[in-house]
Please model this.
Amino acid sequence: MDATLKLWSVVAIVGALNYVSRLSFIALFAQRHVPPLLVRAFRYVPAAMLTALVLPMVVAAPGEPALAAMPKIVAALAAGVVAFFTHSTMKTLGVGMLSLWLLQALAGRIG
Amino acid sequence: MRRFLADADFRAGFAEMVPACLAMTPFGLVCGVGAAAAGATLWGALGLSAIVFSGAAQILAVQLLAAGAPLAVIVLTCFVAGLRFVIYSAAMAPYLRSLPPRWQQGLAFLLTDQAFAAAIRRFHGGADPRAGGLHFLGGGFALWLFWQATNVAGYFVGNLIPAQWSLEFAVPLCFIALLAPHFRTMPTIAAALVAGVLVLALAGLPMKLNLIVAGVIGILAGTLADFARERWTPR
Model:
């Protein structure tokens, strides 16, 4: 298949499927009553999904030495503490990036 | 359009999303670099970022395109990685019920990890549907606009940024900023703990299935913990 056609097929099909996923329950529950059990379960969506998204980006990838991920893990924890107390994206970013750079510089000196 | 731009809730939503947009810059750059590396034209790269509008799906798509994977595999992989949007959709639905269908259809397009987390926090805080909807529209629009800009920038100059800067670390940090404030109750901590352990334990699953499986079981764990807490709390 021609490369350009293939790319645009991906854009069209994945774009459509993503949109259907995004609209699914918003449209479905527009006319129906949402069961109370589900409403209760929805409260835990951000905590569970965001944790599942974040963790693989922070800890070592399979095959990577565990020690190599240490600066990222420590920096992520520091950022988490700042986020917990300040609710500020900018402060979380600042502390997280600065900690990472500092720890990577230290790790480079020791290793 | 002008009607929205003048609206206070829309503008507040836009302004409050700017820090998150900046934090997503490295992610957008990486997506642009990936599209260029996969041999996409500028319009193809823009098509991906503007229509698919999901960093995770875009990265998977360009990696698989570059590797010469069949169309069916690419589509299925991206679809599974995007299944979390179904859960976001369900969680947003109760708050968007009273809005007109056209609003629901428009807002659904802007439903991303960032926009969802920001909107759900606001709705939990008790925003009314109209104000919350406009706020969501403003934030979602900001994200969409920045996303196109950073993808295009990445397409042209993304690979000039030194790898030692580890700018990609801004992406998890951005999610941590949204996540950490949730850790105030026992059931939320249980949900996160279970999801976290599972996503790592199941990292070998294909098509990033570990994300959705860990997420769903984490949500179940949180719900069960919620019932358990209710049962054992003395009245």
Q: What stands out?
A: The two ends of chain A are 49 Å apart (CA to CA).
